[in-house]
Amino acid sequence: MGSGLLNGEVPALEAADVRCWLYDVSELYDDTTFSMTMGCLPWEERRQRARRYRFKKDQCLCLGAGLLVAYALKKMGVRDLSLGSGEWGKPYLLRYPHIHFNLSHSGTMVACAVASEPVGVDVEERHAYDEGVARLCFTIAERHWMMGQPNVDEAFVRLWVRKESYLKLLGTGLTDDVRAFDVTPGLTGRRNVQFSEREQGGHTVCVCAESPARVTFETMEMLPIA
Description:
Largest sheet: 4 strands, mixed
Shape: globular
CATH architecture: Alpha-Beta Complex
Number of domains: 1
Helix content: 25-40%
Distance between the termini: 18 Å
Order of helices and strands: EHHHEEEEEHHHEEE
CATH class: Alpha Beta
Number of strands: 9
Structural class: alpha+beta
CATH superfamily: 4'-phosphopantetheinyl transferase domain
Number of helices: 6
Oligomer: single chain
C-alpha cells in the first residue's frame, strides 16, 4: 500500500478488500514491555484510559487495542491518526473519511478491521452456552440452529460475534434490539452483508462487511511499533 500520503489523501484500498489484524496481548503483561509500549500510543486519551483500569488484564487489552489499530492504519498508509467519534461512540479518521476501521477485544485477543466501506469486527473468548443470554438475544431460528449443532458452546459464541459485528458495522453497538435481525449461518435473502469468521487462540473472530468482500486475516505475534 502507498505510504507517501499527504494532505489527507485517501490510502489505496480496493472497494471489496477488508483487512483484519489479530494480536494476542499476553506479551504486554510484562511490566517492562507494558511501560515501553505505552509511550508508542499516538493518543493520549487512550493512555489515560489504560492507566485508569484497575486490573492488569484490562490495562493490557486497552493498550494492545490502541497499538494494533495504530499499526493497522499506518500499514494502510494513514499518516494523520486524528480521530473523531460518531453518535454512538464509534471512532473514525478525521482526515480520511473513506477509510473505515473497527476494533474489538476479549480475553487476551484484540482485532482491528480496516476497509473502504463501513465494517464491524467482534472477538469473543470461547465460553459455555448461556441459556438466559440466548433467550434474550437470539431469534427462534437462531436458537433452533444453535441447538442442532454438534457443539452448542461454539455455536453460541459464533452467533454472538455475528450479532455484535453486524451492530458494530452499523455503528450502533448493542443499542438496537438484537432479536430484530437474524444472523443464522446459511440464511440468505437478508441484507447485503457477509460474515467472515476465524478461530484464533481460544477466541472466535467475526468480520461483518458490505457484500461481496475479500476478507484477509493477519495474526501478529508481536507488534513492531516504531
